[in-house]
Amino acid sequence: DMALSEDGSLAVASGDRPEILVFDPHTGATLGELKTDGNVTHLALDADGTVLIALTQRHQLACWRMSGELSGAPLWSIKDAFTNIALDRRAACLLVTLDDGQLWSLRVSDGARMDQEQAHEGPLRVLDISHDGRRAVTGGEDHACRSWQIGEDLKLEPLATVKDLHRSGLDKATIHPSSEYAATSDHRGVIFQWKL
Asked: Model's pTM, two decimal places?
């Protein structure tokens, strides 16, 4: 996986090894290497490249502050049946999905779980957070897509559920920068856009 900060100041990538390479995207120079407990499946950077979140194949979730020495231990780490991550661009909220359909909101500063909801029946596969950090969208193997309000206290409030848009497994969910629309795609290449 790979990620690029919104401001273009930092890039991170991981391949078939239990490490994350940190790059200067302008020069291509390697700035550091972070060790993980296994191969990385998901990476996320906040808008200015100061916070990195990684999820490994061993379901280890870890957070680093990207300043100073770039080879140290993570700020915090948690292990559970995590499947996907979405980081708020302000690095206040991290949403994580679990195999059993749960959606958790974590406070990025310390990894504390602020809320959890049973979002779907069965595995939750896709998720995204809006540009303003106030909305989220999820999709599960139950062929349902849900929208969520994220409160200032990082509590999750379900807004709407759209069922049976897709007839096969979901690949991706994304929220338009206006936070008014979401789009989801499935394994067959079918894309639906819907109002949040």
From this structure: 0.90
